[in-house]
C-alpha cells in the first residue's frame, strides 16, 4: 500500500512539472511541442472560449474511448490518473493563476520549458505510467500499420509540430522541433538518473571479510567469480556487486581500512532490475 501511495505521489509531482512548463513557457509563447498538450494549444487558438486544460480533458476522453475500442482495456490506472491529472492541473492553473510568459525569449522558453516538462514526464515514466493522450494514437499506428512505437510517437509529435507551425508561424514551429528533440534527451537523462547504480568488481586478499561486510553490514547481495591472474597465473576470487552511490562510499571506506592494495573497478549501471532493486517489467 505504501509503495502504491509513493508511486501516485511521484506521478502527481511529475504532471505538476509538466503543467507548469506548458502553462508558463510553451502556451504563452505559442510553442506547440507535440503530444496532446501541443495539440490542445493549437485547438485553443481556434476555439479560445475553451481552456487548454478543458480541451485536454475532452481530448483525453475521446482518445481513451478510441483506445478501448481498438486496443482493448490495456490501460493502467496510473496512466489514467496521470493523463487526467495533468489536464486537471492545467485547468486549475488557468482558472485560478492566470498563466503568463516567464520569458518571451523563444530560445530560453524552449530550453527551460523543455527541461521542466521533460523532467516531469521522466518522473511519470519512472513510475511505469504515461500521460496518455497521443501515445494512444501511436499505439494504434503500431498495432495496425506495424510502425514501431518510437517512430509512431515521433510521427504524431511532428504532425502536431507541423499544425503548430501552420497556426503560429514557421519560426515558432522550428523552436517546437528543437523542444521535441531536446525533450527526448532530457527524459532519457533523468530516467537513467533515477535508476542508475554502481557496478563494482573487487579483487583483494581479504575477499571473505569484504564479502561478509557487503552481505551482513550492508545487507547487499554479491557474487563471487573465480578468476586467474594474467601475470602470476594464480587463482583469484572477484567480488561482483551492485549498489547505490552512498553504499559505494561506505564500501570504499571499509576496503581502505582492511586492504589498501585492493583492486576495485566501478562502472555506471543505468538500469538495475531484480531482487533489492526495481522489479523486472
From TrEMBL:
Keyword entries, A-Z: Cell membrane, Membrane, Transmembrane, Transmembrane helix
Keyword Glycoprotein: no
Major localisation: membrane
Membrane topology: Multi-pass membrane protein
InterPro entries the UniProt entry points to: DUF2179, N-reg_PII/ATP_PRibTrfase_C, UPF0750_membrane, YitT
GO CC annotations on file: plasma membrane
Subcellular location: Cell membrane
Residue ranges occupied by any DUF2179 domain in the UniProt entry: 220-274
Keyword Ribosomal protein assigned: no
Source taxon at top rank: Bacteria
Transmembrane domains' residue ranges: 7-26, 46-71, 78-94, 106-125
Protein's UniProt name: Uncharacterized membrane-anchored protein YitT, contains DUF161 and DUF2179 domains
Amino acid at each position: 500500500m505504501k509503495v502504491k501511495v509513493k508511486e501516485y505521489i511521484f506521478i502527481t509531482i511529475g504532471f505538476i512539472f509538466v503543467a507548469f512548463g506548458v502553462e508558463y513557457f510553451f502556451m504563452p509563447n505559442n510553442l506547440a511541442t507535440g503530444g496532446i498538450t501541443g495539440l490542445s494549444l493549437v485547438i485553443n487558438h481556434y476555439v479560445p472560449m475553451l481552456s487548454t486544460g478543458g480541451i485536454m480533458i475532452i481530448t483525453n476522453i475521446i482518445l481513451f474511448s478510441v483506445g478501448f475500442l481498438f486496443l482493448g482495456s490495456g490501460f493502467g490506472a496510473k496512466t489514467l490518473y496521470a493523463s487526467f491529472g495533468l489536464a486537471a492541473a492545467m485547468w486549475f492553473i488557468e482558472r485560478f493563476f492566470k498563466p503568463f510568459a516567464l520569458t518571451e525569449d523563444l530560445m530560453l522558453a524552449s530550453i527551460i520549458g523543455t527541461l521542466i516538462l521533460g523532467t516531469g514526464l521522466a518522473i511519470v515514466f519512472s513510475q511505469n505510467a504515461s500521460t496518455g493522450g497521443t501515445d494512444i494514437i501511436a499505439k494504434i499506428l503500431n498495432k495496425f500499420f506495424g510502425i514501431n512505437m518510437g517512430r509512431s510517437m515521433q510521427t504524431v509529435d511532428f504532425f502536431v509540430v507541423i499544425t503548430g507551425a501552420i497556426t503560429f508561424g514557421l519560426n515558432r514551429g522550428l523552436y517546437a522541433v528543437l523542444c521535441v528533440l531536446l525533450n527526448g534527451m532530457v527524459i532519457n537523462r533523468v530516467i537513467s538518473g533515477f535508476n542508475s547504480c554502481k557496478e563494482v568488481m573487487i579483487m583483494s586478499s581479504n575477499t571473505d571479510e569484504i564479502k561478509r561486510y557487503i552481505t551482513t553490514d550492508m545487507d547487499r547481495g554479491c557474487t563471487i567469480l573465480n578468476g586467474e591472474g594474467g601475470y602470476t597465473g594464480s587463482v583469484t576470487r572477484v567480488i561482483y556487486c551492485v549498489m547505490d552511490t552512498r553504499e559505494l562510499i561506505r564500501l570504499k571506506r571499509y576496503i581502505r581500512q582492511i586492504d589498501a592494495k585492493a583492486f576495485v573497478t566501478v562502472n555506471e549501471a543505468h538500469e538495475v532490475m531484480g531482487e533489492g532493486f526495481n522489479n523486472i517489467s
